Please model this.
Amino acid sequence: MGRRFDPCWNHHLKPESKLWQMVKKNLPSIHWTRLESWAMPGVPDVYGIQDGISVFVELKVTRSNKINLSPFQKNWLYNHYLQGGRSFIMLQTLDQRLLRVFPSSILHSPLSITSEPQLKVSYTGPAAGDAWIRVEQFLLHSPLAEIPEDLSL
Model:
């Protein structure tokens, strides 16, 4: 009869907007707010809260494992870490269909991206639901990295 309606709005979204939609859909127990950071450069893309635990998340989508952060983003995330805040970088690698979540403490050293705790999950396939449970637990309950004495305020 006629063509099946296929929403076209999703095809025109930027990759980070699609990642935001995926986070919102798969982590519904966290109250999320998408932040428009035009007024304050460097503020992460999303803020979430659940049971009094607040978290900021910078969303990045790439075809490699490289995290491209602006100097403003690095500064905000690093200073938030120094104050004991929970903030993370969520990196979606399209080619590998992986989601990697890093605490903002990785920014204290270029080598720390390989040595800091991180969560790496596949967000497709039969275990996708369990992967999102692990993401939620990591964001809200992973231990915060200790601030090295030479970096303390």
Remarks:
- The domain at 13-143 is CATH 3.40.1350.10 (Trna Endonuclease; Chain: A, domain 1).
